[in-house]
Write a structure and sequence with these properties.
- The protein is an all-alpha fold.
- The protein has two helices and no strands.
- The N and C termini lie close together (11 Å).
- 3% of the residues are buried.
């Protein structure tokens, strides 16, 4: 069984890597669509989406872990 702490660390790592990939994608793709956002704004927007993603990922992980425990 995965501990709550490890669930959080796994979720955090996953989301942070996703954030870096998304940020790089934004910087490369947005200009093709005429979207020009300053880097500072990209970082701030990405920060808030990252916080939301961490909470979402953690809650889902705990929910699936709990469901697995109930099936045993």
């Amino acid at each position: 069984m995965q501990s709550k702490k490890f669930s959080f660390i796994e979720s955090l790592t996953n989301v942070l890597i996703g954030y870096l990939v998304a940020l790089a994608s934004q910087l490369l793709i947005f200009p093709f669509f005429g979207i020009h956002i300053p880097l500072q704004d990209n970082l701030l927007i990405g920060f808030w989406f990252t916080v939301i993603s961490i909470v979402r990922s953690y809650v889902l992980r705990r929910w699936f872990t709990k469901r697995t425990e109930q099936d045993d």
